[in-house]
C-alpha cells in the first residue's frame, strides 16, 4: 500500500486530546490470545508469531522485557520501528540508517499502518505498537501490551527450556494484589504522564499532575519496606511500572511537564528499586535511551516544535541499588 493513499485513512496522528482538553487513550482493537492448547485458534508454536515494537514506547517495552526474561527470543521474532513517529505514523528503517531499528522482514511494510490494513482493510483506529502478528494466519493476534505480557508469561511454556518454564510474573497467590496495583498505577502513572503531557487545558494538566505525584508518593512508601512492589518477588506490577519510571527523569519530567519532583532526587526508594529492576539479568538489553529521548522530543512537535533533545539520560542505573541500612527485607 502506498503511503499517500494510506495516510488519508485512520485518525490524525497528532490529534491527541478530546474537546475538554483531556487526553484519552483509545481501547486496543485486536484482542485474541495465543494459548498453550494445540487446538486453540492461535496455538503456541515456535517461529509462528512476530512482535512489532518501538524501543521508545513504554507499552511495547513491557512486552520486550517479558520476551527476554522468559527466554522467548528464539521463539518469537521482533521488528523495531524507527524512533521518529512522523505524519504516517511508525516507520521501518534499516539499522544502518537508524541503529537499533530494523526493516520489516516479515511483511515488507514501510509503515506500521500497512500491517494494520493487512489484518483489517477497514481498520479506522490508531496504528499503535506493540503488535503481535501471526505469520500463519497473516493477521494481528493482539495489540494490547497488558495482554501480550500475560501470553508471554505462560502460553509458550511448553516450548521453553525447564529453567524458563517455571518463571511467572503473575503468580496465583498474588494475582488479586497485582490487579489492584495495576489498576491505579495504570490510570495515574503509566497513562497519567500522558494525561499531563497531552493535556490541552491548564485545569486538566494540574489535576492529572497532582494525581500522578500522589501515586508516586504512595509507591515511594510501599518501596520503603518492600524490595519490589509486592515484597521479595518481582512481578508484572513491577514490570509495568518500570517502563514508565525509566523514562521519567529524562523525558516526562521536562517534555510532559511532570515536574513537581524528579525520581533521582525526590524518590530515593523508587530510585533504588529502578536500579534493581534495571540490573536484573537481561533487562538493560531492552533499554535504548537514544530511541526513547529522540522519539518523544522529536515526534511530538505540537509540544516541542524545535525538536531539541535534552542532554540528560536520567540517573545512572548501573550504580549499586543501595538498600536502606534498616531495611526489613
Ligand atoms: N493500549 C496500548 C497502547 C499502546 C500505545 O499507545 N502505543 C503508542 C506508542 S507509546 C503508539 O503506538 N501510538 C501511535 C498512535 O497513537 O498513533 C498498549 O498498551 O498496548
TrEMBL record:
UniProt keyword list: Oxidoreductase
Pfam families reported in the protein's UniProt record: GST_C_2, GST_N_2
Listed InterPro entries: Glutathione-S-Trfase_C-like, Glutathione-S-Trfase_C_sf, Glutathione_S-Trfase, Glutathione_S-Trfase_N, GST_Omega-like_C, GST_Omega/GSH, Thioredoxin-like_sf
Keyword Oxidoreductase annotated: yes
Domain GST C-terminal: 171-296
Catalytic site: 57 (nucleophile), 194 (proton donor/acceptor)
Position of the signal peptide: none
SUPFAM superfamilies: GST C-terminal domain-like, Thioredoxin-like
Domain of life: Eukaryota
Record-marked site positions (Lowers pKa of active site Cys): 252, 296
E.C. number: 1.8.5.7
One cellular-component annotation, GO: cytoplasm
Record-listed glutathione binding positions: 90, 126-129, 144-145
MF-aspect GO terms: glutathione transferase activity; oxidoreductase activity
Protein name, entry field: S-glutathionyl-(Chloro)hydroquinone reductase
Amino acid at each position: 500500500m502506498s503511503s499517500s493513499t494510506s495516510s488519508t485513512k485512520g485518525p490524525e496522528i497528532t490529534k491527541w486530546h478530546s474537546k475538554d482538553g483531556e487526553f484519552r487513550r483509545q481501547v486496543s482493537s485486536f484482542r485474541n490470545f495465543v494459548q498453550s492448547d494445540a487446538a486453540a485458534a492461535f496455538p503456541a508454536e515456535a517461529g509462528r508469531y512476530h512482535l512489532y515494537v518501538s524501543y521508545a514506547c513504554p507499552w511495547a517495552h513491557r512486552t520486550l522485557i517479558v520476551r527476554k526474561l522468559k527466554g522467548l527470543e528464539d521463539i518469537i521474532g521482533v521488528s523495531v520501528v524507527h524512533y521518529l513517529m512522523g505524519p504516517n505514523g511508525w516507520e521501518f528503517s534499516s539499522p544502518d540508517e537508524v541503529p537499533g531499528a530494523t526493516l520489516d522482514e516479515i511483511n515488507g511494510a514501510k509503515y506500521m499502518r500497512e500491517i494494520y490494513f493487512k489484518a483489517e482493510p477497514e481498520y479506522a483506529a490508531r496504528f499503535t505498537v506493540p503488535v503481535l502478528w501471526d505469520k500463519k494466519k497473516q493477521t494481528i493476534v493482539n495489540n494490547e501490551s497488558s495482554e501480550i505480557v500475560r501470553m508471554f508469561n505462560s502460553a509458550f511454556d511448553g516450548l521453553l527450556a525447564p529453567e524458563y518454564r517455571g518463571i511467572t510474573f503473575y503468580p496465583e497467590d498474588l494475582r488479586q494484589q497485582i490487579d489492584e496495583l495495576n489498576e491505579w498505577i495504570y490510570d495515574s502513572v503509566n497513562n497519567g504522564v500522558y494525561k499531563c503531557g497531552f493535556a490541552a487545558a491548564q485545569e486538566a494538566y494540574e489535576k492529572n499532575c497532582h494525581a500522578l505525584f500522589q501515586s508516586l508518593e504512595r509507591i515511594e512508601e510501599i518501596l520503603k519496606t518492600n524490595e519490589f512492589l509486592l515484597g521479595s518477588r518481582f512481578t508484572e506490577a513491577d514490570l509495568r511500572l518500570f517502563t514508565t519510571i525509566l523514562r521519567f527523569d529524562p523525558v516526562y519530567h521536562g517534555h510532559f511537564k511532570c515536574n513537581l519532583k524528579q525520581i533521582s532526587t525526590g524518590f530515593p526508594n523508587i530510585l533504588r528499586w529502578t536500579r534493581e529492576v534495571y540490573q536484573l539479568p537481561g533487562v538493560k538489553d531492552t533499554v535504548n535511551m537514544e530511541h526513547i529521548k529522540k522519539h518523544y522530543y522529536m515526534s511530538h512537535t505540537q509540544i516541542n516544535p524545535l525538536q531539541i533533545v535534552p542532554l540528560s539520560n536520567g540517573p545512572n542505573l548501573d550504580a549499586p541499588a543501595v538498600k536502606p541500612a534498616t531495611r526489613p527485607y
